[in-house]
């Protein structure tokens, strides 16, 4: 498990000022934390960290020497500045289920030669105890053919008794559809309509 260092943040200093000084702000909340702990982290460290871990990842947060087992609950990006504004962390309690999401990672989709590979779900929502948290679900889709569909219930995560999936089990995660040449079809319809007039 990776560790990210953070410092407690004084609420007297505005988040905007801290961001200008090169920090990412955040909050740590959880059942055993009264209110929340406002934190700040050096932007460079956060960006390096997020190359490996993302939303839904379980990490160790070191706040001035105190270790917290946390879940990265939310990441707020600033599209204008092109950086990260804020990260929220949920402190985990071993006997308490938490809501989280797992990112779908489709492997070998470039091997699909017939049809078009379509992704319908980018992440799956679930509840689990800290020991069963996953941040990525990897699926090898290289053997998929036109007409093949992967549903949430088909994922290995759905078979894990320690994980309670909250996304609809019948929801389509990915599929391979036949290639349709749409413009020609539209022209034929227009011609047919012209003939009937």
TrEMBL record:
Keywords: Ribonucleoprotein, Ribosomal protein, RNA-binding, rRNA-binding. GO terms for biological process: translation. It holds the Pfam family Ribosomal_TL5_C. One of its GO terms (molecular function) is structural constituent of ribosome. InterPro entries: Rbsml_bL25/Gln-tRNA_synth_N (IPR020056), Ribosomal_bL25/Gln-tRNA_synth (IPR011035), Ribosomal_bL25_b-dom (IPR020057), Ribosomal_bL25_C (IPR037121), Ribosomal_bL25_long (IPR001021), Ribosomal_L25_dom (IPR029751), Ribosomal_uL5_bac-type (IPR020930). Residues 4-89 form the Large ribosomal subunit protein bL25 L25 domain. It comes from the Bacteria. GO terms for cellular component: cytosolic large ribosomal subunit. Gene3D superfamilies: Ribosomal protein L25, beta domain (2.170.120.20), Ribosomal Protein L25, Chain P (2.40.240.10). Residues 105-178 form the Large ribosomal subunit protein bL25 beta domain. NCBIfam families: bL25_bact_ctc. This is 50S ribosomal protein L25. It comes from Hominifimenecus microfluidus.
